[in-house]
Amino acid sequence: MNTGYARIKGNTMGTTYxxxxxxxxxxxxxxxxxxxxxxxxxxxxxxxxxxxxxxxNQKTEKSFTVSSIKNPHFVANLLQSxxxxxxxxxxxxxxxxxxxxxWGFGYTEKRTINEANKLKIDTLLQSIGFNKLTIEVxxxxxxxxxxxxxxxxxxxxxxxxGYAVDAVGNFLASKEITNFFVEIGGENGL
Length: 190
Description:
alpha+beta; globular; single chain
């Protein structure tokens, strides 16, 4: 007996994902979901050297221009981060990448810090603070992000998997599928 449920599994964002959905048409959306997740990863992963976020992080120029048409996932994560930063009075701060790397948890070489270097940490702290970024909307689709400090870097990893879960859910909803479960690396949505 066919229940009309499809199950898809795969890899993304350095982890696994699974999607279960009920579809009377029994359409397998694995190719489309893989493509969507690959596109998101290509924009927001700090582990991909030519991703949009990595390019932003590598640039020392003061400003960086992105488009919500060409870079929709980067822009969505940037604007959501700005919103959460404001809602949490700065307790959520996606500019912590330099400290994440210093402590060995980021995309750089993994290492153990036996004794913190206060001078190094103080220097890194100068490049941290989402309030030090200026986001200017130049037209309805173009954003210019200006860094107060050229060493500022972004890290969307705290929200990227949740964003991807929502994106897959929105994709399924666009196919008139309303009964689904999406899980990416422990982040899930119904």
